[in-house]
Amino acid sequence: MDEDEKQQCVSRIISIIKELSVWKNDAIAGVDGAQLPKSWLDVVRNPHEFTPVTLRKNCIDLGMDCSTFVFCHSDLGPYNIIVNPEQKKVVGIIDWEIAGYIPLDWIRTKFGVSWAMDFVWNGVGSEDPLLREWRDRVEPQLEREGYPDVIKAWKNWFNKRIALVGS
């Protein structure tokens, strides 16, 4: 894709994020009001505890605004976006199994911290700019659109929780 085509895909995903976030809820939950499988927000427990109470507590600990929750796909990495190869335009989104209501802050944060938003997962944690291109395009656009984040807080929280598991 050329630069214009790439930006067109980013812009379409941003507009989809905005469209979805119009739907609000008073609890962090899946579309059915039950648990929301967000392993990025419960990194220590095995098995994970995805109850609305636990996820809300973790989000508050990270400094997220939990006064309202917005609907989000929650996994808009390149593998879940269908692009028409001829027109090079977004035509669909797949894999809605972790869609639900989350703090607005999590939308941008996920793009800032999640290797699942990269093009290739073989080098999980890689900082190769080509692998990170998708999230490196979307995250700054979300910032320009006014989406808040807790990227630094999440990285600190994640490192502390992983250290607890290792001790």
For the largest beta-sheet, the strand count, sense and barrel status come to: 4 strands, antiparallel
Report the order of strands and helices.
HEEHEEEEHHH
Weakly predicted, low-confidence segments? none
Radius of gyration: 16 Å
Total domain modules: 1
Predict the CATH topology.
Aminoglycoside 3'-phosphotransferase, Chain: A, domain 2
Number of helices: 5
Q: Portion of residues in helices?
A: 25-40%
Nearest-integer average pLDDT: 89
- Give the name of the CATH architecture: Alpha-Beta Complex
Would you report the number of β strands?
6
Order of strands, main sheet, comes to: 1-3-6-2
Your description of this structure?
This protein is of the alpha+beta class. It has one domain: Aminoglycoside 3'-phosphotransferase, Chain: A, domain 2. It is built from five helices and six strands, in the order αββαββββααα. The chain has helices at 3-20, 52-61, 104-113, 133-144, 151-166, and strands at 24-25, 29-30, 69-72, 81-84, 89-93, 100-102. The strands form two sheets. Strands 1-3-6-2 form a four-stranded antiparallel beta sheet. It has a two-stranded antiparallel ribbon with strand order 4-5.
Give the key terms.
167 residues; alpha+beta; Aminoglycoside 3'-phosphotransferase, Chain: A, domain 2; four-stranded antiparallel beta sheet; 5 helices; 12% strand
